[in-house]
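Re: Re: token formats

Sure, here are both.
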Amino acid sequence: MQGIGVTGAVAPALLPEQAQAQTPPGVMGPGAVAITLNINGKPMKATVEPRETLLDTLRNQLDITGAKRVCDRGTCGACSVLVNGKVSYACSILAIDAQGKQITTIEGFAMSGGKPHAVVQAFVNNDAQQCGYCTPGFVVASKAFLDHTPNPTYEQVKDGLGGNLCRCGTYVGVRKAVLEAAKMMKGGSNA
């Protein structure tokens, strides 16, 4: 019968000066770095750890709090922002990777010419918010959707906003709001 052998070798004991030399440094990996982000048309500076998300940087360092943390897994859409015009989940983007890109949050278009943006107004008109936690993400996604689909059908709205979830179930109001906003934007109001 053949067994698993043990060599019997034992690691030699370290002398105190050798043990001290083997102690790992206090900081493991890169530290915080200074970055500049273009948010709502303005350069904004922050100091972030390389693992920090865009959502954390927006909310905790730059006091831009429209995007909400809900799932923190890139599935609910409450943290939706526009990155180079495309809807993106801020909880899934590293802040350092967002450098050099155009970032638009709900704060960047919520008011236009002193009046609410057409999408914002349509959400109010149609009671398209309940607890309000998902609302900023839905408004951002709706604006981006209408930028690419200015004359949508109800089914297109339903499919186009499939990346955003509402725990309160106010989907009917959201969809009606997007259809109303499309009409308002066509008429030249707050496009």
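Second one below.
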Amino acid sequence: MELSVINIKGEDTGKKITLSEEIFGITPNEHAVYLDVKQYLANQRQGTHKSKERAEVNYSTRKLKRQKGTGGARAGSRKSPVFVGGGRIFGPRPRDYGFKLNKKVKVLARKSALAAKAQADSVSIVEEFTFDAPRTKSYLEFLNAISVTGQKTLLILGAADKNVYLSGRNIPKTRIMTADMVNTYELLHADRLLISTPALDVLETLLNK
């Protein structure tokens, strides 16, 4: 697959980039994508949920009424889960939701996400650029120039650029990441992938090991 390289003004530079068939030309593996996204979302969970069980509720332990002769069910403690304010049965406890996923599966998932976007014509290759100073207006002008205003965009850079990052971080539906930090969830979440030419080299190096 061959794509034209555009500059910061949205103009065609006349250069062509051939995307790696080993990444952008494969048949997406949906199950690998599912597992990688599931792991990513699981790792975002704090897992700090907790409710008090019977042994942790602060109530008296005296017997509420006599065992027999009342006509009702026996009740031994105000802490019983059947009473309002009593302990919760099998309540949530703090836990880690993360799980192990093989590196090869994660690589396949990222390749699949990139391939799916490329096959949907949702990938643009951008010439390397930077800003003289952090300015949100400069980044908005860049988005307007390439006609993606209002879309969810993910700009992938070859290396961290403070001015570019600070310029785009407050714009809704806009994400900026370096190629070595890209994950399957972010790739799929974006409507449009904007990949800089240095980032493309980094991605091919990382995913074709």
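The helical segments are 21-24, 30-44, 103-119, 136-145, 162-168, 184-189, 197-207. The longest strand covers residues 12-18.
- S.
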